[in-house]
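Predict the structure of DUF1254 domain-containing protein.
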Amino acid sequence: MALSLALAAVIAPRLSLAQAPDIQVPIPTSVNQVSGPVAGNVMTQSYVEMVGRMAYVWGYPMVNAYNRRKAFSEAPKPGLLGGIIPVAPVGHNAMLTSYVEPQQRFIACPNQDVVYGAGFTALDTEPTVIQVPDFGDRFYVYALYDARTNEVARIGKQYGTKPGFYLIAGDNWKGTVPPGITAVARSSTDLVFVIPRVFKDDTPADTAAVQPLINQVVMYPLSQFDGKMKTVDYAKLPHFPAPAGSGGETKWVRPASYYEDLADVLKRVPPLPGEEALYGWIRSVWEAAASNPETKQQLVDTFAKADADLVDPLFHFRYNGRPIGRGWTAPANASQWGTDYLNRTAISKSSMYQNTPEETQYQFKENDSQGQPLDGNHQYTVTFAKGQTPPVKGFWSLTLYNAEHFFHANPLQRFSLGTKNKTLKDNPDGSLTLYLGAKSPGADKESNWLPAPAGPFSLLLRNYWPEAAIIDGSWTPPDVVKTN
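Done. Here is the predicted structure for DUF1254 domain-containing protein.
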């Protein structure tokens, strides 16, 4: 009986509460708008450092992109920086006329399979038109990257893109699309980096054949659109002096100016759905630093440490993406990052501006079949079995990079091998062996030789317009075997 009374005493109040009317408690609107500490809260040094480290890793790719556009905005007209890097005022582009030169340091991990172009937009000012000529059977792809380094359009051979005029506009642009525009690409950021890539082989004849096509790859503000295909003789571009650089990529993200740079980015780049609280959290610390020099200095010091401890290691290919077998790694969502901030920043650090997985599959390698770092003081082979070269509809290439992810200067001026090369020699059994190392493998094998520095190097296998076997992982690259 006592137990029954005790249970009744516990249950009864619950029943009465369940039967009672709801109590309406108004919640001030301001509560829902708070992101991060309320203004004026005291922040410990450890807290400031924690938010600063997170903000540095998260915002690194966007600061990287905006500082590159600042460099472009200084160009008085389309031209070549240092005679080798295509630059143009915002809203315009420039094109190379052949492969990128090994001396360039604007962007790491270039390839020598395509003729590159480059141009930035400022969509908060005006939409931009970009021309697509009739490339016929030639492979090409235009990658359009927003400020987050996501691709915002699908223009290229693999998409069946029709020749014509394409408009790049901001999400909020409500102007009239003029007759003659084939399609409109929208971007949630005012910055879009347009990088046309037009395949050509390594023969002088094909270099000449591609010129009329690339001369029609032109980009300009909508106010200049007249429905007529414009041409530019890119062989006559003026040359601008280039600042002195080091062996590595130009330093586009600098801890000393990151506080100001990220604040500018936060104003220009709207949050993705779900990022609103993240923006508020970061801004709360930035606002505290604005009125407290010591807090700002803590942030600057934190950025420098985060750069060394968190971002610098991501330069290594082994931290780019996921293992796919035989010591190779590959990103699964290149230029489709969403909220994958780790891989977004890793690629921004090591090899900025990759194509989507459907456009290009990138496969990285830094170690040999024994797990030892690749070093040009040794010699290596990569052998594709008969019929087992990368299954692609576009082209493939294996590029060798020095320790800074740039081309290693060599007498052959050869930095990659693949579809573009017309002198590759198959083995008697139909397999294809490529030779890697600082020393020649012998005159009879030099057509298949990738010269390496006498020191560390890495490899990047590009598969443009990959077949399903590469995308689903049923085909993976062969291992790299040390032969001495």
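The longest strand covers residues 392-401.
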